[in-house]
Design a protein that fits this description.
With 483 residues, the protein is α/β, with parallel strands linked by helices. Helix content is 43%, strand content 13%. GO terms for molecular function: UDP-glucosyltransferase activity.
Length: 483
């Protein structure tokens, strides 16, 4: 009897990275592969949302084997602060031997490949030591991946640090100019800081993978994809093959949530494409100050448009705390907007909301998963980046994709009520808003084509599986030859 073909996935400790990798697991199952997931114990991260998502997904995917790696002693809890990346990468290195032991125990199960989260790419050295093909999964855009691949070569040529460049545009191969200030905060640190050094070391390891799966589809980012395939992208280095296998979107993280959310019933009663949806990412990361919440409320009220707004307590409060809407929002706001607006605490089923016929626009923090959810729903967007690579995503959404407008006040630290009102009116009422809507609808259609039989993403996934099989066959032949 032929042994089952197994793929091992090694996701990171982020909801936004874990969920697309579990959608990859579903795709692998559909192609007849067995899937095992190696996990660092979610308890090491002070993020109740991540642990809850892992439990729900594991319960909803009984065909996938989930294995929590044996704990490393004296592991400090991870908190989101200025040194998070340094501690996170140190944690991953501590678990390398645990991962090695797990993979070694799995060899009898005919492991074809290991796919690691791109932030965990140091683990590829463990994978290669065992003679297993090793790939990474990049859960943001192809454009961001192209930028990350090029950053280490820029400073190698000398010149000022990214921090010193400020808003000076970086000219990167195959990409529009990117202000240095829009890069990851970790590379805007001083050159001698631990955070900067650890992040750049991470980016320098990009070419070590046998290939990279990117959660995008080719027609959405044609220029960036072409750049990644050009030898001039990173002079002197060969980038591994890139497989654009997305868009991986869906409500897999909401598995086990059986009751229909109240906001969906409210949307059922609204006219088509009449509601502005505001949501800013996972619990604990998309928080605004009390002043900012009030500005949003006044702007929404004055716009006169219907809205569905997910509100979280300010970041200074306990993450995930139940917000006191009466204390946070202007006096009388809830009464004045009753029927026209709905404020939801903490969370809403974003994919279902975006795909609802009543939703007409999306105010987003530009996290890549949210961008793809907006794209596949065909909804025009208003960009309000907060952290990570979201400023870079904003550039591409407003520029090459042409599906969004920017809330520029984020650059001064406060989006005023007047801008909220003006931009909501723009996307919902103006000719420019209609053009955004048309391009968003075209992107939705393109995403469907890419994911259908014969589409670019389906073909890319088949190419990935064929490359894995070829590497596995070569490895087996070499073992026979050595014997």
């Amino acid at each position: 009897m032929e042994k089952e073909k197994t793929v091992v996935l090694y996701p990171g400790l982020f909801v936004s990275h874990f969920v697309p990798m579990m959608q990859l697991a579903r795709a692998l199952l559909d192609h007849g592969y067995a899937v095992s997931v190696a996990l660092i114990d979610p308890a090491v991260k002070e993020d109740i949302a991540f642990g809850a998502v892992v439990r729900r997904v594991a319960a909803s995917m009984p065909s996938v084997r989930f294995h929590t790696l044996r704990a490393v002693k004296d592991t400090p809890k991870l908190t989101h602060d200025a040194r998070f990346m340094v501690r996170y990468l140190d944690l991953l290195s501590r678990y390398n031997e645990r991962l090695h032991d797990f993979l070694f125990s799995m060899l009898a199960r005919n492991v074809h490949t290991v796919v690691v989260d791109s932030v965990s790419n140091e683990a590829l050295r463990v994978v290669k030591r065992l003679g297993i093909p090793g790939y990474t999964m990049f859960t943001s855009s192809a454009a961001t991946f192209a930028a990350f691949a090029q950053l280490p070569t820029i400073l190698a040529e000398g010149g000022p640090s990214f921090k010193e460049l400020g808003d000076t545009p970086l000219e990167l191969f195959g990409l529009p100019p990117i202000p240095a200030s829009h890069l990851l905060g970790e590379v805007l640190e001083d050159l001698d800081s631990d955070t900067y050094k650890a992040t750049m070391a991470l980016l320098c390891r990009i070419p070590e993978a046998d290939g990279t799966l990117v959660n995008t589809f080719e027609s959405l980012e044609a220029r960036a994809v072409a750049a990644l395939r050009d030898p001039l992208c990173v002079p002197g280095r060969v980038l591994p093959p890139v497989y654009c296998v997305g868009a991986f979107v869906g409500s897999i993280a909401d598995a086990g949530v059986k009751e229909r959310h109240e906001c969906l019933a409210w949307l059922d009663g609204q006219p088509d494409r009449s509601v502005v949806f505001l949501c800013f990412g996972s619990i604990g990361t998309g928080n605004h100050s009390e002043e900012q919440l009030r500005e949003i409320a006044v702007g929404l009220d004055k716009s006169g448009h219907r809205f569905l707004w997910v509100v979280r307590a300010p970041a200074s409060d306990h993450p995930g705390a139940d917000p006191d809407l009466n204390a946070l929002l202007p006096d009388g706001f809830m009464e004045q907007t009753n029927g026209r607006g709905l404020v939801v605490k903490l969370w809403a089923p974003q994919v279902e909301v975006l795909r609802h016929k009543a939703t007409g626009a999306f105010v987003t923090h530009c996290g890549w998963n949210s961008v793809l959810e907006g794209v596949t729903a065909g909804v025009p967007m208003l960009c309000w980046p907060l952290y990570s690579e979201q400023k870079m995503n904003k550039l591409h959404m407003v520029g090459d994709m042409g599906i969004a407008k920017e809330m520029v006040g984020w650059q001064q630290g406060l989006v005023k009520a007047g801008e909220v009102e003006t931009k909501v009116r723009l996307v919902m009422e103006s000719e420019e808003g209609s053009e955004l809507r048309s391009r968003a609808a075209a992107c939705k259609d393109a995403a469907a084509v890419a994911c259908n039989d014969g589409g670019s993403s389906r073909l890319a996934f088949a190419r990935f599986l064929a490359d894995v099989a070829n590497r596995k066959d070569r490895a087996c032949s070499e073992e026979v030859g050595d014997a």
